[in-house]
Specification:
Elements: H1 3-33, H2 39-57, H3 59-68, H4 74-93, H5 100-114, H6 121-155, H7 160-195, E1 203-204, E2 210-211, H8 213-232, H9 234-243, H10 249-267, H11 269-277, H12 290-303, H13 312-342
Antiparallel strand pairs: 1-2
Helix pairs in contact: 1-2, 1-4, 1-7, 1-8, 1-9, 1-10, 1-12, 2-7, 2-8, 3-7, 4-5, 4-7, 4-13, 5-13, 6-10, 6-12, 7-8, 7-10, 10-12
Length: about 350
């Protein structure tokens, strides 16, 4: 890989870093907020599983984003990911969890408008619809899980000592599942603009294990996410873990599980193909808002308590950030592309 390619990839590394800072909260924010897991333990588990999910299951969602913004030059890929990263960084700075999907979709639309390329409104429509359906699905799943789990505990009470141990184990397993699906569903946000313009030779480790060019890019993006998790995610963790809804440890487990299920539905290629082969309705392979899913889980849990403890003001503050983020990304991308082309003389389309 030459130096110019490494330079252009730096924006993806910045984007991965901001992603880790912003999205760690969706995996273990509730567990950390209820003090069932330490930040260090949660960060280690999340980092390992996000990497695995990104490298081995991230291709399906990445294909969708590549078709949305058919970028063919390195400078254009650099600007689109940089614009998304800037918007995520600004939101992480004020402690508001927003979606990397919202950021990158805004950037890709900004590039399409600048390059006078037709915006793929069908794909945009699928992604935007998922921003609404994923929280609704999470609300439903969390609501049902809360009723079932609390009903089971009511008729089969577990001593408090054992309950805490089981809940902590459940949080670890649920968080691991959620981290894997998060890596699979969202790594395309970080690296999809580069997949068509950066071609690396495949790495062969054994006769049965190798990494393609795409997987190597996902690995690099995943490592940047890990750095973001360890260096800048604590503030946003507290927003999700404490500032939206006061929860018991069991409710924290339910929120994580509901989000994990939703991420799995929208990122599993095998599930998608199985449903397709059996003529069943499928979930589109699109990057969804993990923040939206976890907020849906929080709302679902609160509904079983008739909304008690739900901090609506903070909820609306987060939702307002969801609207602002893609607008910032699109505007920044459009202006930055102008400078990249007319000041620095780089080809952006």
């Amino acid at each position: 890989m030459d130096l110019s390619t490494l330079f252009f990839l730096s924006s993806a590394l910045f984007f991965g870093w901001t992603f880790g800072a912003n999205n760690m909260s969706t995996v273990f924010g509730t567990a950390i907020g209820t003090r069932m897991l330490s930040f260090k333990t949660a960060a280690i588990i999340a980092s390992v599983l996000i990497l695995f999910g990104a490298v081995f299951s991230g291709s399906g969602v990445s294909d969708t984003l590549q078709n949305l913004g058919q970028i063919t030059t390195l400078p254009a890929a650099f600007i689109t990911t940089l614009s998304a990263a800037v918007s995520l960084f600004l939101m992480a700075k004020v402690g508001l969890p927003v979606s990397s999907t919202q950021a990158i979709v805004g950037s890709l639309i900004g590039w399409s408008l600048f390059a006078h390329v037709r915006v793929e409104y069908e794909i945009v429509g699928e992604i935007v619809v998922s921003w609404f359906t994923s929280p609704l699905l999470a609300i439903l799943i969390a609501f049902i899980l809360t009723i079932v789990v609390k009903g089971v505990l009511k008729f089969h009470p577990v001593p408090m000592l054992y309950r805490d141990a089981y809940t902590r184990l459940g949080l670890v397993l649920a968080g691991a599942f959620c981290a894997y699906t998060l890596g699979a569903n969202n790594i395309g946000n970080v690296m999809a603009p580069f997949v068509r313009v950066v071609h690396l030779p495949s790495l062969y480790f054994t006769s049965w294990f190798s990494l393609s060019s795409e997987q190597q890019l996902f690995l690099v993006g995943g490592l940047a996410i890990v750095v973001g998790i360890f260096t800048y995610s604590q503030k946003v963790n507290m927003t999700i873990g404490r500032d939206v809804l006061q929860m018991s440890p069991i409710e924290a487990f339910i929120v994580i599980m509901s989000q994990g299920f939703v991420l799995f539905l929208f990122s599993s290629v095998k599930l998608h193909n199985f449903l397709l082969e059996n003529s069943l309705p499928t979930f589109p392979l699109v990057p969804i808002s993990s923040i939206g899913a976890v907020v849906g889980g929080l709302i679902g849990v609160s509904l079983t308590k008739k909304g008690e403890g739900l901090k609506v003001k903070m909820l609306f503050k987060i939702m307002r950030a969801w609207i602002i983020t893609p607008i910032i990304s699109a505007a920044f991308c459009f202006v930055a592309l102008f400078f990249m082309q007319n000041v620095f003389g780089q080809e952006v389309f």
